[in-house]
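Exercise 7.
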Amino acid sequence: MTTPDRDAAYERLRVALAELDSVVVAFSGGADSALLAWVANDVLGPDRSLAVTAVSASLPGAERAECAALAAEWGISWQAIETHELDDARYVVNEGDRCYWCKTALLDAVEPVATARGATVVLGVNLDDLGDHRPGQEAAAQRGARFPMVEAGFTKADVRALSRQLGLRTADKPAAACLASRIPYGTAVTIGVLREVEAAEAALRLLGFGELRVRHYRELARIEVPVGRLGEVVERRDEVVDAVRSAGYRYVTLDLEGLRSGNLNLALGGPSST
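Solution. The predicted structure, written as tokens, is:
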């Protein structure tokens, strides 16, 4: 999208939010939801826009803290709200529709807040997301949630470009899907597994690997980093192994294909997403 086209899309986004009059933004702190929350606050103000972060074992503690920090920095009205997807056996069993039940739990928690404010729930979905395996989008749409950035015509690249234009520090933030996305379909999602994944990734970030995934295979961890950093992982093998084993894994492996967001969805025979 050219700059004039992006400016036009930005105006469409602002108009769409203004027409909604009052919104509750599902705010994970990633580039998409951060841009949406910032623009909603700019258009509607903190009295008519609220950013809500769903807090559960599938959200890393560092991400919750980052959401709070961004909201304070940008003057956004913000609230953390607990979700209970782990109480739903359909989520825990971790079949191909896990994200559907996760988003259902999110809407269960957020809808009462939105209703009390006379607001519409909005999500930071962009056009690129529509081709992925994302049953959560279906769940949200069924519940009346809106996707203003899709309506305005934003791709992921447009989200990042506009965020840079607006000076938002989330512009180049790496995608950070929920911790459950590290668990292969068919392996149950439990608090213990989520904490193990979170601990392993946190330990690797302390070593300087900011963009990564640790895929969970019981006693085995499969590390994904960008292809350009594979050599560094090998060079620092002892540190990496110690970091991952400190989280509870016995075996540590490196995926030579590099970081591929959502590659576990390949088991479903479709495109990746998380």
